[in-house]
Recover the amino acids of this structure.
């Protein structure tokens, strides 16, 4: 009797659980359409030290009710702990084995999902490929062959969407173990692949880095061809009436100076162009990427040197989101690159951007001036407006006004 | 299966049984692949399990029943040596699996149909026959290649003491800085022998993160930062680590060896028996210091 009641309680609680987890489950189930709501880095923050409750994901497979689990500070004596641990491990291993990797298709159609692999030149293609994944992956040529990069191919296999076969009659499908060893042939490939698949699983569109043909936008808004310094300007010939003009005349053209030297050579390079998920993505003529990612293994590299950074940024070309807030524009800069630091499968994303103070122009805003200006407009002093305006500024700026005459004297 | 596949000096475990048995030894690794159960998320990942270099070394040194297999070399040899007969056997194996799958499907189908009939639905006899010709086929991509007929002989070939010694030496030589790697390893092994579970430490900016038990159930306690021989410890780093660790409710630990490891002497000492040599290094003491941000606020 008691048992029965308890059970009912447990079921009720568990149903509540499922309700609470619904958004998460939904996001898991909607495979391709899933929109990443957060940037990968924030994702990582969240999972930093949270418990991995594998029974959640397990509940997707069979309709077993998910159990809630919590992490403890340290092991306790007794069965309670070891039982919980066994349960957690059991859920994990069950989830690992719950579903076989692979795809189902009608007989005769399997060649559309079979990647042909040439080991000598490491090329991958599918003949007459079909599938939604083609929207953002692969390059189709005139002979109905769709070519993939090794990361794309391996990702498709790992997802269970495609396969690679051995032998001419396609009788033997390569295992995942073989695919990893046969396809990731260079040092560091595994790190790049881990980053690639992480981004893909999050729903981003990822293509191998190419310098897109779109010309790098001219971002030097104040492009002065003459490199000059403040000393070249005969400052004292001007009459300054507000701070803005003073600051404007004091500006140095740092950006252009930096551009004069050619981009240095470095071992680091950008690996991937990344776009936020979008519907009508044209992989042949892609727009400028939203992010560009360079993968660095923390064992082999330190923080990139100035040379490395300049090199990476000279290759970078991403869409700029200009905001109304000048400070946030400064923060994101005109060129930026994301560095993925990898430590045995774990990674952190870091955004490096060149803060370009000059191209932003003057950040100083004479707010008091604007206010007066507006008030003057409202009152419509059309005749005396100009003179009274100048006078009022002169008065308030008396101390800062530099006049040629006074210097002369 | 006690096979530890390495590919380009990275330990990647694809066999779930091996992952289980390693877990029993306190070797956690990091699952890095897409989970077939739910392919569009990053919270739960599947095979392969990526091992740290230290984990790989620890298992091979302390648990002789495990052996390294260089997958990249093995599969090259394996493919080159496949005969028509082998291919035929592989094909037979695949067909057998396929037929088994069809058989279970057919049984399910028939059970369902007869259930419907007993419930009183009128179903013509022609609809009762399960048509295997048109049925969609499931193509499986297996995790491991354990089903290839010759794989056992290849594994046995690598599971020889001499071959293992050679492979271990190769693995050690692939490290960019061997003395640093060995220091890391000795710290790892020291913590492991004290019952800690250890994972890579990137999340908290250390070399390792140590857990009092299985990371599935417990929060981590320690952020480990190795100090190599002769290295000075900047006081600013102490403040840095101490503040960070205290903020995330952990303890920042610096660890180092009291005996200096002589890199140049390695060649001759490692050569005959690297396992014994590493074990002898483990006898040397490891010193650890923890520090905490004592705010006095």
């Amino acid at each position: 009797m008691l048992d029965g009641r308890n059970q009912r309680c447990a079921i009720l609680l568990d149903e509540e659980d499922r309700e609470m987890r619904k958004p998460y489950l939904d996001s898991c189930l909607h495979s391709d359409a899933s929109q990443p709501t957060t940037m990968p880095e924030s994702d990582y923050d969240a999972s930093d030290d949270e418990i991995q409750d594998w029974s959640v994901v397990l509940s997707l497979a069979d309709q077993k009710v998910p159990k809630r689990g919590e992490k403890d500070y340290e092991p306790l004596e007794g069965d309670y702990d070891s039982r919980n641990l066994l349960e957690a491990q059991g859920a994990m291993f069950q989830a690992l084995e719950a579903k076989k990797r692979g795809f189902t298709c009608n007989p005769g159609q399997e060649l559309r999902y079979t990647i042909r692999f040439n080991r000598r030149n490491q090329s991958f293609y599918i003949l007459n490929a079909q599938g939604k994944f083609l929207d953002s992956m692969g390059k189709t040529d005139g002979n109905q062959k769709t070519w993939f990069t090794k990361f794309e191919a391996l990702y498709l296999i790992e997802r269970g969407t495609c396969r690679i076969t051995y032998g001419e009659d396609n009788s033997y499908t390569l295992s995942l173990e073989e695919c990893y060893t046969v396809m990731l042939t260079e040092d560091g490939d595994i790190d790049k692949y881990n980053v690639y698949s992480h981004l893909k699983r999050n729903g981003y569109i990822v293509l191998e880095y190419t310098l897109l043909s779109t010309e790098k936008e001219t971002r030097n808004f104040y492009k002065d061809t003459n490199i000059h310094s403040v000393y070249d300007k005969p400052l004292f010939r001007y009459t300054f009436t507000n701070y803005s003009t003073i600051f404007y005349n004091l500006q140095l053209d740092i950006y252009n100076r930096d551009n004069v030297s050619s981009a240095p050579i470095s071992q680091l390079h950008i690996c991937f162009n990344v776009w936020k998920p979008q519907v009508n993505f044209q992989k042949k003529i892609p727009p400028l990427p939203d992010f560009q990612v360079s993968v660095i293994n923390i064992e082999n590299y330190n923080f990139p040197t100035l040379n490395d950074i300049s090199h990476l940024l000279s290759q970078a070309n991403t869409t700029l989101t200009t905001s109304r807030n000048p400070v946030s524009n400064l923060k994101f800069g005109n060129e930026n690159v994301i560095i993925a630091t990898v430590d045995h499968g774990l990674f952190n994303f870091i955004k490096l951007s060149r803060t370009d103070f000059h191209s932003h122009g003057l950040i100083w805003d004479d707010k008091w001036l604007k206010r007066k200006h507006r008030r003057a407009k409202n009152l419509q002093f059309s005749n005396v407006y100009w003179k009274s305006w100048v006078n009022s500024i002169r008065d308030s700026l008396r101390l800062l006004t530099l006049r040629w005459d006074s210097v002369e004297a | 299966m006690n096979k530890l596949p390495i590919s380009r000096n990275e330990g990647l475990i694809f066999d779930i049984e091996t992952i289980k048995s390693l877990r029993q030894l306190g070797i956690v690794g990091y699952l890095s692949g897409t989970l077939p159960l739910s392919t569009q998320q990053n919270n739960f990942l599947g095979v392969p399990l990526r091992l740290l270099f230290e984990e790989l070394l620890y298992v091979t040194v302390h648990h002789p029943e495990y052996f390294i297999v260089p997958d990249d070399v093995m599969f090259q040899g394996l493919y080159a040596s496949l005969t028509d007969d082998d291919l035929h056997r592989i094909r037979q194996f695949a067909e057998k699996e396929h037929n088994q799958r069809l058989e279970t499907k057919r049984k399910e189908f028939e059970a369902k149909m007869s259930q419907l009939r007993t419930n009183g639905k009128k179903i013509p006899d022609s609809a009762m026959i399960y048509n295997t010709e048109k049925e969609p086929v499931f193509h499986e991509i297996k995790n491991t290649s354990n089903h290839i007929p010759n794989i056992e002989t290849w594994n046995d070939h690598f599971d020889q003491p001499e071959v293992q010694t050679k492979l271990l030496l190769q693995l050690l030589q692939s490290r960019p800085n061997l003395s640093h790697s060995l220091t890391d390893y000795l710290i790892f092994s020291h913590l492991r022998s004290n019952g800690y579970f250890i994972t890579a430490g990137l999340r908290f900016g250390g070399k390792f993160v140590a857990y009092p038990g299985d990371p599935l159930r417990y929060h981590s306690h320690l952020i480990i930062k190795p100090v190599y021989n002769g290295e000075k410890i900047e006081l600013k780093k102490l403040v840095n680590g101490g503040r960070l660790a205290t903020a995330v409710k952990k303890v920042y630990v610096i660890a180092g060896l009291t005996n200096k490891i002589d890199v140049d002497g390695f060649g001759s000492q490692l050569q005959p028996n690297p396992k014994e040599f590493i074990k002898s290094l483990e006898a040397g003491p490891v010193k650890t210091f923890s520090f905490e941000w004592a705010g006095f606020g």
